[in-house]
Amino acid sequence: MVEWIPYDRLINLQKVREDESEIIFMATWQDGIRIIKGEILEYTRLRIKSCGVNLKMLHGSRSCDVFIKELNGNVVYGITRNTMTNQYAIVIPDEFSSRRNDSNGKCIHCEHYNTSPAWCQSCDPWRAIQEWTSGNEEKKLMKNQILYSWQLG
Length: 153
Description:
Elements (H helix, E strand, L loop, with lengths): L2 E2 L5 E9 L3 E8 L4 E5 L4 E5 L3 E8 L6 H7 L6 E4 L6 E6 L30 H7 L5 H17 L1
Parallel strand pairs: 1-7
Antiparallel strand pairs: 2-3, 3-6, 4-5, 6-8, 7-8
């Protein structure tokens, strides 16, 4: 079931990746996923607690028509619209949700449960790229320490 999701019910938005056709964000959906249990005539509607989701924004997506093609063949929880930019987004499952575990702790960057004890797979690679350096300063310092140690020895 695809539903309208108010944009203000999505919190902790963080860009995961971008290419020429789309931008993927991860977020926490405060209301959680709607679940329908039972038979056709006797069913109950439930929601799971708040959960991690991805938002897929297509470049130039100010028209809902753009999404009709994207909806086919994909698991979609709903559609939302960024109230600041008026861009529509498809709310889809978090690609790392099956690997998240509360025993791994919470990521300090995205506040989701980590995908392993060592790191959060969904945002750490992006953070690491932002902090990369050539490493020349470290090599120079290390070389000086080795030379200094050799001269003393």
